[in-house]
Amino acid sequence: MNENIDILETAIKQAAEQGARIIVTPEDALYGWKFTRETVFPYLEDIPDPQVNWIPCQDPHRFGHTPVQARLSCLAKDNSIYVLANLGDKKPCNSRDSTCPPNGYFQYNTNVVYNTEGKLVARYHKVGKSH
C-alpha cells in the first residue's frame, strides 16, 4: 500500500506543479483489488466526521492509528491541493446487534477529501456496511 501512496505522491506533486487545484484518485488505488473483508481490515482506519475540525498531518494520533490519512493530509497541505481518495473506514458495533459482524466492526468503502491545509473536509461512505 505504501508503494501505491508513493506513486500517488508523485502524481500529486506533478499535478500541483501544473496548476491543478484538486486530484481525484481512482477507486481502490491505495489498497488494490485483491483483498477480502478479513485481509483489508488491518489497513482500515477510523475516519471521523469532518465536523471534528481535524488536520491529520498535524495531529495524526487524534483518532488512533491513521498513517494513511496523515500522509494524504500532508500531501494535500504540502502541495496546496485538494486530495480526494478512496479509503476503508471501520466503526465498532455492538455484538448484540444482529447486523454487527463477528469481528465487532462495520467496514465502509469511503471517499475522503483533504483541503489545501490538509484538513479533512468530506467523508462519504460510498456503499452500505460490509458484513
Short account of what is shown:
The chain has 131 residues and is of the alpha+beta class. The protein has 3 helices and 4 strands.
Describe this structure in words.
This is VNN2 isoform 5. Belongs to the carbon-nitrogen hydrolase superfamily. BTD/VNN family. Pfam families: CN_hydrolase. Residues 1-131 form the CN hydrolase domain. It comes from Pan troglodytes. This protein is an alpha+beta fold and 131 residues long. It has one domain (1-125): Nitrilase/N-carbamoyl-D-aminoacid amidohydrolase (4-Layer Sandwich), CATH 3.60.110. 25% of the residues lie in helices and 23% in strands. The protein is built from three helices and four strands. Strands 1-2-3-4 form a four-stranded mixed sheet. A hairpin with a 5-residue loop joins strand 3 and strand 4. The longest helix is centred in the N-terminal third of the chain and has 16 residues, at 2-17. It is globular, with a radius of gyration of 15 Å. The protein starts with a helix and ends in a 6-residue tail after the last strand. The mean pLDDT is 89.
- Please state the CA-atom Rg, rounded to the nearest Å: 15 Å
CATH superfamily: Carbon-nitrogen hydrolase
- The general outline is globular
Q: List the strand order in the largest sheet.
A: 1-2-3-4
**First-to-last CA distance:** 23 Å
The helix content is 25-40%
The number of helical elements comes to 3
Instruction: Please tell me the CATH architecture by its name.
Output: 4-Layer Sandwich
The domain tally reads 1
